[in-house]
Amino acid sequence: MNCFLCWRRPIDSKVTKTAKQKQAFKHRVQEWAVKLDVEVVWLGVRPMHNKWASCSTNGHLNFNAELLGLDRDLWDYVIVHELLHFFVPNHGRLWKSLMRAHLGDYEVSERKLKSLSLPPTGVLDKENAR
């Protein structure tokens, strides 16, 4: 019997790896959301051209898909960074204190992230321009 339902192409291991990374990343976001007592209404991971992540006041989070290939400490930095914006909308003293309380020396991860060339004009560059 030869039909299109019986024939399967092998699944690309890169696609499988990316799907697993995306699932692990979303799981990590949920872990931090529970820890910080934040309700995440919607969570997306997609290509973004000029920032690592964004959030809205109604509980929506978007993360740059490029994060999936980075170290877990950078995941935590970006995740906590965005989740704390549900409490503090700016990057003032309170926000910095909360970052330090949850991640310790978060500036190390911040510097690592800024040293990467992805995305070309990152959200962190915009923050420092203020």
TrEMBL record:
Protein origin, superkingdom: Bacteria
Residue ranges annotated for the YgjP-like metallopeptidase domain, each copy included: 19-115
Name assigned to this protein: DUF45 domain-containing protein
InterPro entries noted in UniProt: UTP_pyrophosphatase-like, YgjP-like_metallopeptidase
